Please model this.
Amino acid sequence: MKPVPFYLLILLVIISCDSKPKVIIADEKTSTPVEMPSNSPGTMPNTDVHQVVAEEILQAEKYTYVYVSENKEKFWIAISKQDITKGHTYYYRGGLKKTNFESKDFNRTFDVLYLVSSIIDANEHPGGQIAGQEPSMSETPNEKPIKGKKIAGTIALSDLMNNKAKYNGKQILVRGECKKANFQIMGKNWYHIQDGTKTKDKNVDFTITSTDVIQIGDEVTFEGTIFLNKDFGAGYRYDIIMENAVVKR
Model:
């Protein structure tokens, strides 16, 4: 009788071992969270952003498993342990697909599950647009928009966008019409303004945070500090943003 080749012997040992479900290292990578917004300041690059609704929540010792729906699809995701509210809408980016994922906490195997690095409640996202969308213009403007006075020394938004490093960390004046407003998110009001100037044949849409209150259609001058690569977490990063701005009246 011929001796069994060494590699066949190893294969037989592997086959005869415990046949319980195994965690597959990785079947498919989707985009991982990189940066946020981007057709303009405060928009996301078009890299696999998911908007899901939490249908079921399982809390483990270190992780939270969430059964979510996205359009007509339903699937499980796993995130670091945190409070998730059933019925709420959440955003996340990317994810690592696993099949036959074994959870010892619940003594069950998930046929398909996505490991997600971070997730954010739609009610708490910092006023940005989602996945390459154009700034929303659907909000109803004021019947009589405010037209604030023009102030000398105001920087055109196109100049700001073309010379970001020059203005980084500096307090400047910008002026424009409010095209979008999100109020009291993370303790701030988030505004998108445009002043009619363009870069690459597109109107510059610029994001500003402020505690002052203006409305859609108001044309005002803001004074605030410019920040580059501002990261608010959960994949939401602004290439450029003005923060702590005040309206100059």
